[in-house]
Amino acid sequence: MTDKNIRKVLIAGGGTAGWMTAAALAKILGNRHCQVQLVESEEIGTVGVGEATIPQIQLFNRLLGLDENEFLRHTRGTFKLGIEFVDWGRVGTSYIHAFGEVGKDMEAIPFYHYWLKEHLAGRAGEIGDYTLTASAALQGRFMRSVDAGNSPLSNIVYAFHFDAALYARYLREFAEARGVVRTEGKIAHTHLNPDDGFIESVELESGESIEADLFIDCTGFRGLLIEKTLGVGYEDWRHWLPCDRAWAVPCESAGEPLPYTRSTARPAGWQWRIPLQHRIGNGHVYSSRFMGDDEAREILLSNLDGAPLAEPKLLKFTTGKREKFWHRNCVAIGLASGFMEPLESTSIHLVQSAIARLLTLFPNRNFDMEDIDEYNRQTHFEVDRIRDFLILHYSATERDDSEFWNYCRSMALPDTLVQKMAQFKRNGRVVRVDGELFNELSWMEVMVGQGIVPRAYHPLVDVMPDDKLAARMAEIKRVIDRSVAAMPAHSEFIRRHCAAS
Fold first, then answer.
1. 232: closest CA among 318, 324, 317?
2. Distance between CA atoms of 164 and 283, rounded to whole angstroms?
3. One of 4, 8, 27, 80 is an active-site residue; which one?
4. How far is CA 36 from CA 212, 295, 326, 371, in A?
5. Domain assignments of the chain as residue spans, ordered by start
6. Which ranges of the sequence are coiled-coil (predicted)?
7. pLDDT tens per residue across span 353-383
8. Are 143 and 493 in contact, with CB atoms under 8 Å apart?
9. How far, in Å, CA of 463 to CA of 475, rounded?
């Protein structure tokens, strides 16, 4: 039988996407089976603002076999229990989109339906009062799960904040130690096979030519291979997600690092705050249609917790996705595949899921169309559903204090989002479709947090007598409060386990 296995992979571009891909391929493929080479240029640099993650990042780290404490020391990372959204529904309001369980499901009915009944009757507090990670985040507490039986301390769901540049450097060391070859240089030309249009090689400015079987485009917004060489189009989503620019700047730390990301709505966008061990990452994402660059920069610099540590960096982008993520023998990963603002910290996750999907459907040199089509189908579904979740934050608002928010509040929405919101408004139900990234609890937390109150709750909630329900709700609240009180301060946990030297 003719050997059709992929023997050479060329990754164009480094940064977080490139080195995550290189590290995973090095771990799974092994240098003897397939050579992995990465080409990057120090002159080009990377975007490097993807510093907040969601819990799925732990799966990637476990795939590589990383020690969590060591990883956090190298990246000067902190822990993350959720995202606080400030001023999104109305100015002066806030809520936490927390990770993990909410309350305790009863009689096979999600807890939040019982909470809805009690909350609508004025007998229950905010949903975060019944959520371990939300309560712990606001009190600045953190610990990893322990074996505590039925206690919520047995299942603490968390993610990380880390320095993206240090993470890429850490993964580069990991990948090179396992045989990945790094080449410094800029790609000047890409050569195609005249018969089938597949990429045969890239030529560097130095004149060096590098051939490969499979090419992975991690060149960021440029899309050097997927767009400039193969001409794959781009679907523009700015009519739904109008923000198209961001100023980013690190600043000095102010007090102990909080175990959550903060997103604060501004007149024409929003500002992120990501606490690390050695600094705070900040950015102002905004729409140039509604605000000028100078004003946006001033808003960012006027709302820092500490002195800026660098000059603010301006990023320009177009929210949207590639029409194809895998075309011929080229797969686009990271910003080359599309961009959605980091409102829910999905940037690094999309790199991770693309890598996992590529490994699942890893080709041979036949590049079977059935596998390529399936890769594209799954990726389109994933990013479309994440898109809907991000649009929800903008559309579910009562803000009318700027042209930007008036536009967002009244814009036409995708049919899939209209259906999701309508069903929740009617009866409090959220249906997770085909394993979409955000589950029922995430949708509920954001919709409730931004003022969407369902007209009804699950009818089977009424099977439980009111006095029994009140007692159960009170007990769940007591268990949450006791559990949070047993957790150490976030900063103390870091000092004890993973403080950077």
1. 324
2. 14
3. 80
4. 9, 45, 18, 21
5. 8-51+163-237+319-367
6. none
7. 999 999 999 999 999 999 999 999 999 999 9
8. yes
9. 19
Contact 280, 246 (CB under 8 A): no
Look up residue 107 and give its two tokens: 């009689």
Angle among Cα 120, 121, 123 to the nearest 5 degrees reads 110
- DSSP bridge pairs for 489: 141
Six token digits for residue 271: 């500002």
Q: Which amino acid is at 428?
A: G
- Token couple for 259: 């175990």
Radius of gyration of the chain from its Cα atoms, rounded to whole angstroms: 23
User: Residue 246 and residue 269: Cα distance in Å, rounded?
Assistant: 9
Cα 366 off chain centre by: 33
Under CATH, domain 8-51+163-237+319-367 is a member of which superfamily? FAD/NAD(P)-binding domain (3.50.50.60)
CB neighbours of residue 443 within 10 Å = 22
Residue 468 annotated among the catalytic residues of the structure: no
Residue indicated by tokens 């175990």: 259
State residue 205 phi and psi, 5-degree precision.
-60, -30
Residue type, 156: I
Between the alpha carbon of residue 214 and those of residues 198, 221, 233, 346, 365, the distances in Å are 9, 20, 20, 26, 8
CA–CA distance, 77 with 15 (Å, rounded to integer)? 17
User: pTM value?
Assistant: 0.97
Token output for 304: 């820092």
- Residues ≥6 apart with Cβ < 8 Å to 101: 131, 132, 152, 155, 157, 441
List Cβ neighbours of 175 (8 Å cut-off, separation of 6 or more). Answer: 19, 22, 23, 26, 36, 38
Q: Is 302 exposed, middle or buried (0-12, 13-18, 19+ CB in 10 A)?
A: exposed
Give residue-wise pLDDT tens across range 175-229: 999 999 999 999 999 999 999 999 999 999 999 999 999 999 999 999 999 999 9
What distance lies between CA 363 and its chain's CA centroid?
A: 27
